[in-house]
Write a structure and sequence with these properties.
Helix content is 34%, strand content 22%. The chain is an alpha/beta fold. The chain folds into two domains: 1-55 and 399-459, Roll (Urease, subunit C, domain 1), CATH 2.30.40.10; 57-351, TIM Barrel. An eight-stranded mixed β-sheet has the order 3-2-1-4-13-14-15-16. Strand 10, helix 9 (284-293) and strand 11 (296-299) form a beta-alpha-beta unit. Helix 8 (260-266) packs across helix 9 (284-293) and helix 12 (336-351) crosses helix 13 (378-386). The structure holds zinc ion.
């Protein structure tokens, strides 16, 4: 099957009047339409027309059910006017306890539908609601993991179910009954359930798994070590929240005498298979560890701004070659391009400069100004965060339109008001900095359309 489009993004360059050949779940070839397609192929060609075809966006960190509390935490009570991450968490726990399996699945589905409509093709679902509302396991302890997978697959998204390990309220803290749907009593139980999940999805297309010790707060050292060893044996990704809040760093100091990433490093747990979610509050020592071990850092800028977490130290990470990917996390907003642009915009606001991340781009000549100096494009740096680095975090061969990569791509409407007037030079920056989600016209996962003409094919 061939897809033809007025513009196709390969690397950071546009192929004008391009074509993409897809077989099964993979891209076979990409190039100018006149080189790839001959007249006898006509029945197999889908002409997408006046669009920019780009790799599908990868949402590396999602708690889909949290879509259910959107708009429901944006107030303070007159009795209690201070609000922060920890009071938001109480509201989130309230929602957790109110959702039965069907309500959980429909909240997930709403989040996944919005992801598809805004150009995401893959989600890493950091899944921690395991049990019934009263805290007892379902007949199949992975029931809600399957519900999340089914919700994503009904919409058509590719999903990596990152099954969370959660054991305690925190170091030296008494159990919090509001966490009863997350908790498993011992690490062997967690590992058995993880293995059962892995076996059950083996035959399912577009579904993979990963391990996710929730945080250094929620999981003790022996669990972290057992999970990491098990994950190495199976070669699956491992994701963990770390350094989102100063309170969490303080707890790690109490337990280990070290901040979270130094503690994880001393256990030998950090490598390029690991993704650190947030990485907002990092010490100099932790930045050095990240430089050595090269895990991926997953920033969630729309959530971090909503929760008042703080700013990602983006330039400090990029100076050390640490790849940054992106997630929509709590789903206060779902728009992959907004996540991308915020990493740069947060730098601008803090440093009072423009194009801060451009210095990490490859210099390139400007076609319309052959004698002029080479330029460094900020958009190219942000683009990698939403695509290739997200695929890396989930252990998937995706995020770019190249032979052998996953056939996940999105067609952006060049007639949409937010893109009108863009040319080859300004198109990628227009997409990253200015496009609104209404420009997402068609979305394909494994070559199958999940969004057509701005509407879901599943509904
Ligand atoms: Zn999270």
């Amino acid at each position: 099957m061939f897809y033809r489009a007025d513009f196709i993004l390969q690397g950071h360059d546009w192929i004008e009047d391009g074509a993409l050949e897809v077989q099964d779940d993979q891209i076979l070839q990409v190039g100018p339409a006149e080189d790839l397609i001959d007249p006898s192929d006509a029945p197999d060609v889908t002409d997408l027309g006046h669009v920019a075809l780009v790799p599908g966006q990868v949402n590396a960190h999602s708690h889909a059910f949290q879509r259910a509390i959107r708009g429901r935490t944006e107030y303070v009570s007159i009795d209690r006017q201070a609000d922060d991450f920890w009071s938001w968490r109480e509201a989130m726990y309230e929602a957790v306890l109110s959702l039965d399996a069907d309500a959980f699945e429909s909240a997930c589905r709403r989040a996944f539908e919005e992801m598809a409509l805004t150009g995401y093709t893959t989600v890493g679902e950091f899944h921690y609601v395991h049990h019934r509302p009263d805290g007892t396991p379902y007949d199949d302890p992975n029931e809600l993991a399957y519900r999340a997978i089914d919700a994503a697959r009904d919409v058509g998204l590719r999903i990596s179910l990152l099954r969370v390990a959660y054991n305690r309220a925190g170091y030296d803290k008494s159990p919090n009954p509001r966490q009863r749907r997350f908790i498993e009593s011992d690490v062997d139980t967690y590992l058995q359930r993880f293995d059962a999940l892995t076996r059950s999805i083996e035959e399912r297309r577009f579904v993979s798994v990963g391990m996710a010790p929730h945080s250094i707060r929620a999981v003790p050292q022996e669990w972290l070590e057992a999970i990491s060893a098990h994950g190495h044996g199976q070669d699956v990704p491992m994701h963990i929240h770390a350094c989102e809040q100063p309170g969490e760093v303080a707890e790690s100091m109490d337990e280990y005498g070290k901040p979270p990433l130094e503690a994880l490093e001393s256990m030998g747990l950090l490598d390029d298979r690991v993704t650190i979610i947030h990485g907002t509050h990092l010490s100099e020592g932790e930045l050095g560890i990240l430089a050595d071990r090269q895990p991926t850092i997953c920033a969630c800028p729309t959530t971090e701004r909503n929760l008042g977490d703080g700013f990602l130290p983006a330039t400090e990470l990029m100076d050390r070659g640490v790849p940054i990917c992106l997630g929509s996390d709590s789903h206060a907003n779902i728009d992959p391009f907004e996540e991308m642009r915020l990493v740069e915009y947060h730098e601008r606001l803090q440093k009072r400069r423009r194009n801060v991340l451009a210095s990490y781009a490859e210099p390139r000549a400007v076609a319309t100004d052959p004698g002029g100096s080479d330029r460094l494009s900020t958009a190219e740096v942000c683009w990698e965060m939403g695509t290739r680095h997200g695929a890396r975090a989930l252990g998937l061969p995706g995020g770019e339109l190249l032979p052998g990569r996953l056939a996940d791509f999105t067609a952006l409407d060049l007639d949409h008001i937010s893109l009108r007037g863009a040319d080859a030079e300004s198109l990628l920056p227009s997409i990253v900095f200015s496009m609104t989600p209404g420009a997402v016209r068609d979305v394909f996962v494994g070559g199958e359309a999940i969004v057509r003409d701005g509407g879901l094919t599943s509904s």
